[in-house]
Amino acid sequence: MELRRLRIQNLRLIEQLELELASGWNLFLGTNGAGKTSLLEAAFLLSHGRSFRVGGQDALVRHGSSGYSVYGELETASSAIERVGLARNGGRLVARLAGESIAAAELMRHTAVLCFEPGSHELISGPSEERRRFLDWGVFHVEHDFLLHWRRYQRALKQRNALLRGDASGADLDVWDQELARAAEPLTMMRRDYFDALRPILAGLLRDLLAELGEPQLAFHPGFEAERPLAEVLAARRARDLARGHTSAGPHRADWSIGFETAPRREHLSRGQEKLCAFACVMAQAHLFAQRAGEYPVVCLDDLASEVDQAHQRMMVATVAASGAQVLATGTEEPAALAALGVSAKRFHVEQGRAAALL
Ligand SMILES: Nc1ncnc2c1ncn2[C@@H]1O[C@H](COP(=O)(O)OP(=O)(O)OP(=O)(O)O)[C@@H](O)[C@H]1O
Ligand SMILES: [Mg+2]
């Protein structure tokens, strides 16, 4: 899918901006603080309802205004143009499709935008929450019931935790243990299936990008000892959970990991290697999305050049270019890898929250 047009109002320093985007590569060039990352954030918001940067919704709203809005015209494989929009006003998030107000999750189902950015190494070295989010975005786009199961599980988890903290009677906890275990089953199965499908694609990319580290080792961890049913695990941990006041095992603790023959743990990776792993994850997810949906998501590459050497930059650009995905990329300067590989791009000069197409 491709974003044909993007309109942004009151997002970070951008007061008002409208862009006509090209198929293939769109390159946003400008000095630090010009608003390049903010442009990518706008596209990302349409697909995730949140930014990839820390700071929450309020940080996105331009100082002095009451809310932001992002509007996009999305061309999909069926070649219909879909008008998608997300606005935040007075603390509320409103999603729109073809002018009609819809649930934010519905908008996210329509719009697929993936982003590799300077903070992406957190996917490897950061807390497990990042990795669950990554996994769940992919599952959400293939399994239509995923959100339903996820919400059911969250509700059960909240109830169980409340009981653990209060004066829980044994009977109530039994009920919520059962409910939690039942809700956990489809969630874990969907995540595992998704990770299994991602595994060969991700391994292939990691072999190419980080050949020097040897064979990649990828593992999914469901968040509890998978050899036993979760209900049993919860019963065995009850005393401990009561003492701690929260549930110590279950899909809310799920995680996955990347290791290599010569660097089995993530602590063994350099910063640049973490970034290359994160890039491989993003592109593996894009490839898998394309296999299932018949079209690529929009791929955002923020500051591709940071902390990655020239040879690896060329490999990254070649990987993305070969996919044929629409790309929104930023840089303070023209990335040498684009010219080296003969990748043509529509260029924009970004300055103080404005963007002008360069001829
Ligand atoms: N809520 C906000 N309201 C107004 N301005 C903001 C807000 N949040 C951030 N800014 C400003 O927006 C500007 C643009 O930030 P952005 O991260 O998009 O720049 P950039 O072009 O990506 O820069 P860099 O090359 O350093 O990555 C910064 O000067 C920042 O201070
Ligand atoms: Mg930036």
Automatic annotation (TrEMBL):
<protein>
    <recommendedName>
        <fullName>DNA replication and repair protein RecF</fullName>
    </recommendedName>
</protein>
<dbReference type="Pfam" id="PF02463">
    <property type="entry name" value="SMC_N"/>
</dbReference>
<keyword id="KW-0238">DNA-binding</keyword>
<feature type="binding site">
    <location>
        <begin position="30"/>
        <end position="37"/>
    </location>
    <ligand>
        <name>ATP</name>
    </ligand>
</feature>
<keyword id="KW-0227">DNA damage</keyword>
<keyword id="KW-0547">Nucleotide-binding</keyword>
<keyword id="KW-0067">ATP-binding</keyword>
<feature type="domain" description="RecF/RecN/SMC N-terminal">
    <location>
        <begin position="3"/>
        <end position="335"/>
    </location>
</feature>
<keyword id="KW-0963">Cytoplasm</keyword>
<keyword id="KW-0235">DNA replication</keyword>
<comment type="similarity">
    <text>Belongs to the RecF family.</text>
</comment>
<comment type="function">
    <text>The RecF protein is involved in DNA metabolism; it is required for DNA replication and normal SOS inducibility. RecF binds preferentially to single-stranded, linear DNA. It also seems to bind ATP.</text>
</comment>
<dbReference type="InterPro" id="IPR001238">
    <property type="entry name" value="DNA-binding_RecF"/>
</dbReference>
<keyword id="KW-0742">SOS response</keyword>
<dbReference type="InterPro" id="IPR003395">
    <property type="entry name" value="RecF/RecN/SMC_N"/>
</dbReference>
<dbReference type="InterPro" id="IPR027417">
    <property type="entry name" value="P-loop_NTPase"/>
</dbReference>
<keyword id="KW-0234">DNA repair</keyword>
<dbReference type="InterPro" id="IPR018078">
    <property type="entry name" value="DNA-binding_RecF_CS"/>
</dbReference>
<dbReference type="InterPro" id="IPR042174">
    <property type="entry name" value="RecF_2"/>
</dbReference>
